[in-house]
User: Fold this.
Amino acid sequence: MSQFSEYKDVIQDGDLALIWISRDNIKPVKIAAGETFNTRYGSFPHNDMIGKPFGSQIAVRTRGSNKFGFIHVLQPTPELWTLSLPHRTQIVYTPDSSYIMQRLQCSPHTRVIEAGTGSGSFSHAFARTAGYLFSYEFHEVRYEQARKEFEDHGLLRDGNVTITHRDVCQDGFTIKKGNKTTFFDAEQPLDQQDVARVDANVIFLDLPAPWDAIPHLNHVISQDSKVSLCCFSPCIEQVDKTLEALDKHGWTEVEMVEIQGKQYESRRQMVRNLDDALKRLRDVKERKQVGVERRKRMFNKLISDQEEPYEERPETPKTQYNPFGKGSRVKEGDANFHWKEVAKVESEIKSHTSYLTFASKIVNKIRDEDRAAKALVDAVE
Ligand code: SAM
Assistant:
């Protein structure tokens, strides 16, 4: 069973762990007894991790200093994988993938087609939620890398993922005997049937030319249930061509959406009023006056040839905290001051922000009463 879909409590030899070094530095590591994970904050023996619960903080003393370096050893999830995976292409980030999956109503009843696989970011999210994922990639090196990664992550034979090496725009989605694919069905091996049963009811196309893939979909989509589709395209010109193809091939309920992920930082800000401003201005004016007079006296002493023209600066009491100027720092929320809650938008959020074009199709619109009754029973159970 894949570590991405089943939680484990304890870190074991051979597990994949995602090591959190900092918010933007998470490293995937295969835990192996005797090995060491090296960072610039220190070297962390895997043996110190084995046997500890996932989520544990591991500390080592930094060499030549009295300080400690920390890491956290985390259980892999599709969301953390998206933040730590080796990039081979542009990837779909969680703000987009989570929205797309809920719009496409992904569930264990869903059979998904995804093209192309790319770096496998979205594939991991689909694999956790959907019943089955058929992923297609035409770039041979990327296909092999993704195949190996899916195998290492337990997504292939024991899991619910098939990856096929294919140009879907040219050759469509049908999986036949002799194709370069990981498709495996113990009950219906590919050599005992002409083609694999795909029967997809969710389609996700992250391709430069989805309009060339759309005409091939009819052969592999469910014929008797609603099929939902999403195309992920960075340019509006691509959306335009996709809309044309969807219309031509009988897709309906077409809608285009763009996700603009924003992260808000919430904190308290001191409320400053007019009295504070006036107090600050009076303070500045008084100090300025004292300074001008001191300098005037020093000048007069200088021109009357007095021996010691310089005057010590007068001792002024340490400035009380002044909300409009410098002074001792006040802790956020200090009860002596008045605060209000504010939210600030964090500018740096990872999202590819492509245009998402959604559509749906029902091939066979005849109602099958027996199936409908069974579906109702299944839904209640
Ligand atoms: N959604 C992926 C992820 O989250 O990691 C990223 C997909 S990447 C942007 C697009 C991928 O589609 C590339 O790896 C490319 O090789 C593949 N591709 C492009 N045209 C294709 C085609 N006609 N058939 C199959 N794969 C294709």
Q: What stands out?
A: The first strand starts at residue 16 and ends at 22.
